[in-house]
Design brief:
Layout lengths: L6 H6 L9 H11 L6 H23 L5 H21 L13 H5 L4 H13 L4 H18 L11 E5 L5 H8 L4 E6 L2 H14 L4 E5 L12 E7 L8 H11 E11 L5 H13 L5 H10 L4 H8 L12 H11 L2 E5 L8 H6 L5 H5 L4 E6 L1
Parallel strand pairs: 1-2, 1-4, 2-3, 4-5
Antiparallel strand pairs: 5-7, 6-7
Length: 367
């Protein structure tokens, strides 16, 4: 029986060490580790993801101070795991060999694992989630932050770390002359290419490549867009430098990296990252789909929970890195879509700082 929180747990989820939810979070993590090593245990741990997300959202949307609701959800989860272990639910299935996250991270396979993780999350997206939503969200975020789109029909855009190509196509759909997507995953590139061909979207191309060493000359693009990618890489600073390098002088750069401090939102995700260590990714995806969870919400919940690397950064760290890379006119965006954390902070939502920390780190810059 595991009776202690380890140093590597706290490295993943600092909220386990101290803070308003530390006690309940520690109980939930330790209880999860005592339910066994079976397919049933994998299913139970996977179900912890939507359970805590739902509890978090319920607390956040109530308008009341949210710590109590999150603590209740964590306590209930610990009780469920403890009861399951006591009555022998793990005996419903034979032992299984689970993934070992730490071995993955040490094996120089992080890039392949990350690419595969997102490829599998993206593959079941509906047409609306694939095309309509990204274009609407992109345009809304640009408009609300006063970013001029009048010259967009003349612009060539790079989507650095394009995933399934949704935002690559979104740039084209809102008016860019050409959009090029680059991603490390061959499966993502194949899926993206197939999808744009099915919808007959012209002016969009894809290449397999590494965002830490982009396959383009200096000063190649009018707009370089990196949206929620570099915080999952082995060297986010190198990725930032590549974005600046490939941007034309006077061009527009867009960078999104996850935030520190991140409030209770990121505390919950990092607790789940600790619980899910070793959990088979296919088992987690299948469990959530078995519960009837839409593909875009499976992505939303498992995105950061099960990716090998998930680095959170302060605004000052990002600004310093951009400046070192040669970026100019650096501006942190203060608006977003209606559900973005930064927009909720902007609107003065009650307890916003406790819930969301500083909100998403979205920056624009030039060179």
């Amino acid at each position: 029986m595991t009776t202690q929180i380890q140093d590597n747990d706290i490295a993943i989820a600092p909220c386990l060490a101290s803070g308003p939810i530390a006690g309940a979070a520690r109980e939930a993590v330790l209880a999860a580790r005592n339910i066994g090593d079976t397919p049933w245990a994998s299913f139970a741990m996977a179900c912890a993801v939507p359970y805590l997300f739902n509890g978090m959202e319920r607390g956040f949307n109530s308008g009341w101070e949210p710590v109590g609701e999150i603590n209740r959800s964590l306590e209930n989860l610990a009780s469920f795991f403890a009861l399951a272990a006591k009555i022998g639910f793990g005996e419903l299935a034979s032992p299984s060999r689970l993934e070992t996250r730490s071995n993955e991270d040490a094996s120089n396979q992080v890039e392949a694992i990350t690419g595969e993780h997102y490829a599998r999350l993206f593959e079941n997206f509906s047409t609306v989630s694939y095309w309509d939503e990204p274009a609407q969200l992109l345009k809304l975020r640009l408009d609300r932050n006063g970013i001029d789109l009048n010259e967009l029909p003349r612009k060539r855009v790079l989507d650095a770390g394009c995933g399934n190509g949704r935002y690559t196509a979104a740039w084209r759909l809102i008016g860019a002359r050409q959009a090029v997507g680059v991603d490390i995953s061959p499966l993502n590139i194949a899926t993206a290419q197939r999808r744009v061909e099915q919808l007959n979207i012209n002016g969009v191309t894809f290449e397999q490549g590494n965002v830490l060493k982009l396959p383009f000359p200096d000063n190649s693009f009018d707009i370089v867009f990196s949206n929620g990618v570099l915080h999952h890489t082995v060297d986010w600073r190198a990725g930032v430098a590549e974005c600046v390098r490939t941007l034309k002088p006077g061009g527009l750069g867009w960078l999104y990296l996850i935030e520190n401090p991140g409030g209770l939102f990121w505390d919950v995700i990092e607790i789940l990252r600790v619980i899910a260590q070793g959990l088979d990714r296919d088992a987690a995806r299948n469990a959530l789909r078995g519960l009837g969870t839409p593909a875009n919400r499976v992505f939303y919940m498992l995105d950061h929970v099960m990716v090998p690397i998930n680095i959170r950064l302060t605004p000052d760290e990002i600004i310093a890195c951009l400046e070192e890379a040669g970026a100019t006119e650096i501006k942190r965006l203060t608006r977003g879509s209606d559900f973005d954390r930064i927009e909720r902070i902007h609107r003065g939502e009650p307890f916003a700082e406790i819930k969301y920390g500083v909100g998403e780190n979205r920056f624009i810059f030039s060179k």
